[in-house]
């Protein structure tokens, strides 16, 4: 059953049409990676999935809620959609534990005590237990990104969106973050991942979407996309990056 359903999605910045009538679905528990050249609309599509970008046409239904409807409560919907950004977006003045517990407590999802327990459990999952009392400026980029993943998970989301989560990291930090994401996938988390990590897309995803110039050019399983692409443009892109 589809947990994400996108129909005819359009998005423009001024006269520049960035998304040109996108259709896509994501099933519960599915991992979908979105690949393509820079400027193809990948990150904009992801940001439309929790309405961080204003949508100009079409619809986005997440877990049965049409978030493009004027009647929808987007703040309520966002509580079920975890988002991990390229640049972490941690609060520098809060400890790691406080960064993770802030939203669940402020939104009345948990007591402080419950949130602290959950944060410690999540820190263990992402391999960062010893950093609970540290502050973001003392962490490496890879460590910050693992904390950002734990923070998103603290809201117990139904869907996790990742916007190029490793592209700002030093190469030696990338593996730790991808391992956390792979563990999440193995646990059945529904994930949509915009990525340049072709190895991750090939190994972990159930489906790969190739985008170019605001269109979905190809949407298929990793074996087809990487070994037998149906579209010449997909093959051309992969020949350059692999």
List keywords for this structure.
242 residues; alpha/beta; Rossmann fold; 6-stranded mixed β-sheet; 26% strand; globular; ATP hydrolysis activity; Polar amino acid transport system ATP-binding protein
Question: Describe it for me?
Answer:
There is one protein chain. With 242 residues, the protein is of the alpha/beta class. The chain folds into 2 domains: 162 residues, Rossmann fold (3-Layer(aba) Sandwich), CATH 3.40.50.300; 57 residues. It is built from 9 helices and 10 strands. It has a 6-stranded mixed β-sheet, sandwiched between helices. The chain is globular, with a radius of gyration of 18 Å. It comes from Facklamia miroungae.
Query: Do you know the CATH architecture of the largest domain?
Result: 3-Layer(aba) Sandwich
At CATH level 3, the topology of the largest domain is Rossmann fold
Radius of gyration from the CA trace?
18 Å
Strand content bin:
25-35%
**Shape, per Cα inertia axes:** globular
As laid out across the biggest beta sheet, the strand order is: 6-7-8-3-9-10
| Number of distinct beta strands | 10
Termini separation: 33 Å
Largest sheet: 6 strands, mixed
Mean pLDDT across all amino acids = 96
Helix content: 25-40%
Q: Ranges with pLDDT <50 over ≥5 residues?
A: none
Number of domains: 2
Fourth CATH level, the homologous superfamily of the largest domain? P-loop containing nucleotide triphosphate hydrolases
Helix-strand makeup class: alpha/beta
Count of helical regions: 9
Write the element-wise H/E pattern from the N-terminal end onward. Answer: EEEHEEHEHHHEHEHEEHH
CATH class categorisation of the largest domain: Alpha Beta
